[in-house]
Amino acid sequence: MPRQRIIIGIDVGSSNIRVAVAEQGKEQGMPFQILGVGQTRALGMRKGVVVDLEETAKNIKEAVAAAERTSGIKIESATVSLGGDHLGCRSSRGVIAVSRADGEISAEDMDRAVRAASAISLGANREMIQIVPKQFCVDSQQSVKDPVGMKGVRLEVDVLILEGATPFIKNLVKAVGEAEIDIEGLVPSSLAAAKAVLDRRQKELGSLVLDMGSGTTGFCVFEEGEIVDSCILPVGSGHITNDLAIGLRIPIDVAEKIKLEYGSVLPDEINKKEMINLEKLGGDDGEVSRQKVAEIIEARVAEIFDLAHKRLKQIDRAGLLPSGVVLVGGGAKLPGLVDLAKQKLRLPSQIGFPIDFEGVIEQVDDPCFATVLGLIICAGEQNEELRSRVSNTFIFSSLAPAVNKFKNWFKSFLP
C-alpha cells in the first residue's frame, strides 16, 4: 500500500474561512480523499484583506479546530488563499541562450528563461506571487509547451506574473502565523477556484471562472491549457445584501435572509403580487414585494457581469471562450444567475462544482468550497513537481517558508 500525504487548504475569504483536510496517494493520478472540513465567519476580513489581525487569527483558529475535529488530523501547516482587489497580473518575456554546446534544452534552461522574464520592477510595495509560463519559443518555433530535449540556440518564454500589495500579503501571513499555522504556499483565490472546477478540455478550449465572493469577485481566464488573465473585480455578493438593506430600509441581517431565501436575478419571472413577510424573518411588521427584491439583486449582479465583460474586451476574449463561464462562490447560488450570465456575457454558462474528489464529498459539493479544494489541488501538484524537478507552473514564492525553515535549522548548528 503506497504511503499517502495529508494536505491542508485554508480559504480566508471576505465573509467565511473554510478549511479542508485531504489525503493524497503517493501515486500520481490518485484522487484526493476529503477527510474533514471546518468553517467559520470571517469577522476580521473586508474585501479579501485583513482589517482586524487579532479577530482574523481567532477565526482561523476556530475553523482549523473544526477541521481537526472532523478529520482527526492535527493541523500545523497549510496552503492558504490570497484575495483582495490589490491582486493583479502583467505579461513579461524572458530570453536566454541555450547553455549546452550541442544545443539541447534542459530543465535548467527553462528555469533560467522564466527567471529572466521575472526580472522586472513591480513598483513600491508590490511583490510577485506566482509566475506562470504561457508558452516557449525555440529559435523561430512558436507556441512550444515543453521545450526540454529540443534543439536550439535561443530560448524565449512568455509568462504571466501574478502580483499583489506587500502590506496586505504580510498582514495575511501574520494572521495565519498568529493562528499557529505555517504557510506552505499562497495561491490567488480565483486561480485556486479554477483548479477545482475546470477539467482539462475546458482549459484547452477557453473558459472564464467567476468566483463570486462576498466582498469581491475573482476573474480568471484559461485558454490552451494555461491561464491568460486574472484579476479581482471590486464587487461581490455582500454588496447585494447592502443594496437590499438600503433599498428596502430593513436591517442588514434581514436583508441577508431575504437574499438567501427569496433572492432571484430574474424579476420578470416573479409574480408581481408575491410578497415577503418581514416579521417571519426577524424584521418589523410589514411586507415587501419579491419582484422588487429581484430587481435590486439583478441590478447589482448585472454590474458584476458588465465589469467582467469589459475585462474580456480588454484582453480580446469577449464572446470567444467556447467553454463559457463557470460560476463559483457563495453568490453563484442565486436563482437565475446562469441565465443572466448567458445574456450579459454572451457565453455558455454553468455553476461550477468541485471535481475529482472522494471521501466526505457531501460536505464540499458546493460552489462555496471551490477555492479551498483548489488549494489542495495546487499543493498536490507542487508536491508532485518537487518529487520530479523544479516547478515551472506553480508559485516560486511558495517555497520561501520551507527555505527559511531550513536556513533557521542550519543556523542553529553554527557557533
TrEMBL record:
Q: Which GO terms describe its cellular component?
A: cell division site; cytoplasmic side of plasma membrane
Subcellular localization: Cell membrane
Keywords attached to this entry: Cell cycle, Cell division, Cell membrane, Membrane
Start and end residues of each SHS2 domain: 7-197
One of this protein's GO BP terms? FtsZ-dependent cytokinesis
Cite the InterPro entries for this sequence. Answer: ATPase_NBD (IPR043129), Cell_div_FtsA (IPR020823), FtsA/MreB (IPR050696), SHS2_FtsA (IPR003494)
Membrane topology recorded in Swiss-Prot or TrEMBL: Peripheral membrane protein
The record, for Pfam families, names:
FtsA (PF14450), SHS2_FTSA (PF02491)
Quaternary data = Self-interacts. Interacts with FtsZ.
Q: Which HAMAP family match?
A: FtsA (MF_02033)
As for family, the record states: Belongs to the FtsA/MreB family.
Q: What is this protein called?
A: Cell division protein FtsA
Q: Which organism is it from?
A: Candidatus Portnoybacteria bacterium RBG_19FT_COMBO_36_7
